[in-house]
Structure formats: C-alpha cells, structure tokens
Amino acid sequence: MLLAELLDEWERRCTREVIARADAEGGDAADRIRRVGQLSSSDDLHRIDLAVRAWARHDESVAARLRRIDNERMDFLRQAFGTFVPDPAEVEARSTLMFALAIGRHFIAADHPARTTRDAVALAAEHLLRPPQWGGASG
C-alpha cells in the first residue's frame, strides 16, 4: 500500500499540480510550456521522477503507470504546441524533443562552449518554442 501511495504522490506533485498551476497562471501556450518546465525542473521533483523511471524498469505495474503519466504529459505538450504549430508532424516532433529534454537534461555530460549545460538546455527549449517560420515542417 505504501508504494501505491508513493506513486499517487509522485503523480500529483510531478504532473497534475504542475500542469494545473501552469494553466491557472495563464499566458500563451509557449508560456505554459515554459512554466511546466520551470516547475517540474526543481531538483526534488526531478529526483522523484527519475526514481520512478528506474523503478518502472523492474516493475511492470509501475511501468504501466509511468506510461499513462508520460502520455498525459505528452498530451499537454501536443495540445500546447498545436495552438501555434499547424503541422501535426512538427507538433509531435517538438513535443517529443521537449519531453526528452526535460527528462534527459541531467544526463548530458557534454561541454557547451561559452555556456553551462543549464543555459544550453534553456536555449534548446526556446528554439522549440519559436513559432514555425515556414508554416510547419512540410511547408
């Protein structure tokens, strides 16, 4: 039972509350995506998320729950990107890249000339949040 309660807490703190707060604070879609990134990037939330991911590698019920929550997170990104990116393929690409950046940023060990890793990640995120210049990937 304690493990289920831990997963409930992770789901609430790392996903539901973050998205609800970003939505409540308003702004355009890019602002909401930025806010979700800022709120979920705190060290304590990110450590919890990484621990659940490690746990899911060894427990199928945790893996199923992680998949459901990751799908909720991706749905948030798809909806938000879809408000200013007209091409569905580009929406999927940007959503996937933003999600991968959020999950994997702490695993990047490469040097970034004249930047910290944090600055390089922020630059990459801002690049993904730019409106398309040619009407989408196929335009």
What this model shows, in words?
There is one protein chain. The chain is mainly alpha-helical and 139 residues long. The protein has one domain (2-129): Tetracycline Repressor, domain 2. It is built from 6 helices and no strands. It has helices at residues 2-24, 29-40, 43-56, 60-82, 88-104, 117-129. Helix 1 packs parallel to helix 4. The longest helix has 23 residues, at 2-24. It is globular, with a radius of gyration of 16 Å. The model has no long low-confidence stretch (mean pLDDT 91).
Compute the number of helices: 6
What is the alpha-carbon Rg in Å?
Answer: 16 Å
Task: Compute the separation of the termini in Å.
Answer: 52 Å
**CATH classification class:** Mainly Alpha
Strand content: under 5%
H and E order: HHHHHH
Q: What's the architecture, going by CATH? A: Orthogonal Bundle
Helix content: over 70%
- Tell me the count of domains: 1
Give a brief rundown of this model.
73% of the residues lie in helices and 0% in strands.
Notable traits:
139 residues, mainly alpha, Tetracycline Repressor, domain 2, globular
SSE layout and pairing:
Layout: H1 2-24, H2 29-40, H3 43-56, H4 60-82, H5 88-104, H6 117-129
